[in-house]
């Protein structure tokens, strides 16, 4: 593993994270106006919330690089090269979970949170199933939720209907499924690098 290859994978993951943050931000605003942003969200995002996409991109890069690194140290087998179809299905489910958080209506927030939690665990079961993946997903959910609470509490970020410790109660589910998804993308990128190194070793 070279520094250049890590930088390339990190850059790809960063751009994916930035893209997802903008798309999901739009989904939340368009469906429920969850965040305190006007309809012209892109203008506001660039003016006031400009730091959100870069932070999401940085977090995505760290998570996507951390998953394969942990797999290597724990001796867990990662995905095989070329299994992008599984990654794309994982992304589709992740997008569906985000869409559900904005569109589904339940009698109370607890029902919504439990439904999204089941969907998030289902995503992990279908596309990961590794103990390290589950543990990292939980850790990411807890850490990201705490950071979000601090941002909202200090007035840096806000929700229109924050009902659980200053943030939406379904946020941990989104963070968990997002961590698993970015981990799968990072693993597949690392699989290409690993197979290329193996092929070069055979040629030498």
UniProtKB/TrEMBL annotation:
Family matches, as InterPro entries: INSIG_fam
Chief place where the protein resides: endoplasmic reticulum
Keywords, ordered alphabetically: Cholesterol metabolism, Endoplasmic reticulum, Lipid metabolism, Membrane, Steroid metabolism, Sterol metabolism, Transmembrane, Transmembrane helix
Record's protein name: Insulin-induced gene protein
Bilayer topology annotation: Multi-pass membrane protein
PANTHER family: INSULIN-INDUCED GENE 1, PROTEIN NSG1-RELATED
CC per GO annotation: SREBP-SCAP-Insig complex
Any single biological process term in GO: cholesterol biosynthetic process
Lineage: Eukaryota, Metazoa, Spiralia, Lophotrochozoa, Mollusca
Organism field: Pinctada imbricata (Atlantic pearl-oyster)
Family indicated by similarity: Belongs to the INSIG family.
Stored Pfam families: INSIG
Taxonomy, superkingdom: Eukaryota
Cellular localisation: Endoplasmic reticulum membrane
